[in-house]
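Dear Dr. H.,

I hope your travels went smoothly. While you were away I took the liberty of generating a structure for the chain from your last submission, since the lab meeting agenda had it listed for discussion. I wanted you to have the full record in hand beforehand rather than looking at slides cold. The sequence, exactly as received, is reproduced here:
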Amino acid sequence: MTTTVLPRESSGLNSDHSTPFEGERLPQSAALRKTEQYLAPLVHPRCALGDYDIYPAFPVGGGLIDTGFESLARRITGERTVVMDGYGGVLWEAFRERLDAALRAVGVRASWHCVHDALLDEEEIARRISPFLGGDDPLWGTRFTGELRRFFSAERLAGIVPPDDAGLAILYGTGAALAGWQGSLFYLDVPKNEIQFRSRAGSITNLGARTPAGAKEAYKRFYFVDWPALNRHRAEIQERIDVIVDTQRPDHPVWMRGSDLREALGAMSRNYFRARPWFEPGPWGGQWIRNRMHGLAKDVPNYAWSFELISPENGLMIESSGLLLETQFDALMIAAHERVLGHAAERFGLEFPIRFDFLDTVAGGNLSVQCHPRPEYIRREFGESFTQDETYYILDCTPGARVFLGFREDIDPEQFRAELERSHREGLEIDIERFVNTEPAARGDLFLIPNGTIHCSGAGNLVLEISATPYIFTFKMYDWMRRDLEGNLRPLNIRRAFENLYFERRGARVREELVSRPHTIEEGKDWRVVHLPTHPAQFYDVHRLEFATGIDVPTHNQCHVMMLVEGTSVILETANGMRARFNHAETFVIPAAAGSYRLINQGTEPAKVVKAFVKS
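The corresponding predicted structure, in token form, is as follows:
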């Protein structure tokens, strides 16, 4: 069967809401989310040729997605027992109230039972997770190794039983499937960006907490404790899910059958997918993203980041008859990590290994001067299985733009540390270029940043960061005496940085070892493949496909992470019969199981597509 997805238009609705919208904010009085970013639309908005699509979606058959509490109530009618499990960050009580009202409207009376009544006391949960929260460290802990069941009392779970009468009984809440009820299993999902927006507003709590924590404290606990436990739980129950519900729009739940979701994930794993990106302002942020990517909120000072493909935080959207349903990226890896990763699956398991994101400093400022942990350090200190090796691909830049990379030849480590600590202690600026080397940046350059390398992007760059997936382990040494968007000095990590820096990466060795030297490895009549070699310490490699009309590419049982870095748009044709269009600066992924694919240039100028993959 051949499926084509080219025009991004809605073709009909199967929904309780007939009015499409391209984005909305909840009223601030609702206090449910704190962000300037729009809620995702119910209906896929049209996207012109060449325009970056901020709501990418994978197409499935018509009529597979439905919306609204009324349609959910109709789905439940006739059931005796329903289990509603879900991710952390769901607005459970609001969802229960709205669904209960919809059930009553169709003449169904339900008895509701909350699995959160079986949670351990908050003090006991705090004791169990304390070893993973890093003590007084404001940013980092270590990965939780336990199961979601560790948050619950076995005795209390056993005590939650469905009533004996003939009515409908609904057990709801994160972890509901742990109670062992027999009945239809609903899973309520919520994207990680919305979890963070809700956390910033104080409308949700961490697992087992009675009150909301501050945004940074809550995020640390999400990353190191809640999300690992929740992902393991989802992996255990995903094959049993009867209905998946996207709850990011509190008034407009979107749902589909679990079997249809699994079929969609299977099709993605054999063809292609594109994660839904999300965008954040920052103290050094620029204006390239803000000016070039349509549909984003404009009443922000800048955009510093685009989370193009950061698998622990991105979602995947599915489109049916124009309607959009989003599920977390983890769902795909649980369902099909071997098909997605191919030969790399044995090494990385359920962890997607490669990250793409944008760092925008065009009309912005320098990033902080920083480094990332060595492999043994990140394993010992934070429980990660691989480290944060990075590269900077310069997708665009302004004249005179630079990258700070490696040390100057005459670096004195002790003097450098003394200057950093004095700056931090006394609030003094320092001339960082006395110590840190700089390299001129040009479009198409690839700068190599293996762990332990001092670096940062200078102002004037749109950096495509092609990196290993770990993304929060940045040890800042100097931040130009700059404050964050809340007016606070940003925390530095000088001690941790000096435990990881390689001072031998200095002077002439920087250009020899940390600036990639492209060379052609294959070519044909109007195409060529250019190798942009990465550092020996980095497990991934980079090619650039350059073609005037088209190019055929085998996967060789490797997953390819791609971006159109020059050109208007390309058409992807997979060996399994699917076609899709990708526009300039859009990230897309070809799974190993796709086997082979063809890229067709739709522009008048030659197309250039960057391809990153795990080294053989």
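Two observations you may find useful: The chain has 14 helices and 32 strands. The chain has three domains: 69-251, 323-513, 519-614.

With kind regards,
E. W.
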